[in-house]
Amino acid sequence: MADIRLDKFLADAGAGTRSEVKIKIKKGQVTVNGEAAGKSDIKINPDCDEVCLDGKKLIYNEFEYFMLNKPQGVVSATKDDMDKTVIELITEAKRRDLFPVGRLDKDTEGLLIITNDGKLSNNLLAPGKHVDKTYFAIIDGEVTEDTVLRFDEGIDIGDDKPTAPAKLRILYDDKDEASDVVYNSGDSCDDFVSDGIVKSKVEITITEGRYHQIKRMFEAVGMKVTYLKRLSMGSLSLDDSLKPGEYRRLTDEEIKLLNGSF
Ligand code: URA
């Protein structure tokens, strides 16, 4: 790792804001390799210098990675005047430069990666890398094998060009927590009726990230998405022990998996 200023090291290690850590340095609370650090702007190397605050060794991670099960009603942004943001949910973050990798709509749930690793984010989102994103969806309308074929050919959603082919899988299992509707024809049906409307449950995989893409794809075939949850991105799947609003750090293995997704 390259050398960095001591005050940046401390702030990034979660020791306080830049101005708070400057005060701590002045007060003599910070040591570098056992010596009191008099100045905030001295350069240290996170790989070999030992930095302590009040005698406790600080751990510095250049990057942080979280998996969030995004709940509905929260926006995929770093700041927002009206709504709570996904960043506000990551209460144990040390780094202040975290951002969500891409966006999920306010009413979409599911897997969202929160990091400060811009390179990883760019790679996962780059149109040329075609990283798979798989969602579970409940649809107002009867999704049929014909719909599957149409999605496989790409759908004109009013942009310059049709979407890339999307894999649509009709779900035949009626057991999922997303819906408490009553099925009209037993276990092996692909559609059901709720409030007099035929509904379908599907899994859909897209490789692009256009604005409201899945909702617009179903609209283009005369149907409406009423529930959407992202299940995976590249090789990373949502940990199903995370309830909406919960998060955890990614494991080293998962970070490796993500880096192998493009
Ligand atoms: N497609 C959508 O329509 N919404 C999302 O949040 C993600 C994909």
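^ uracil complex. Confidence is low (pLDDT under 50) at residues 180-189. Residues 104-105, 108, 212-215, 228 surround uracil (CB under 6 Å).
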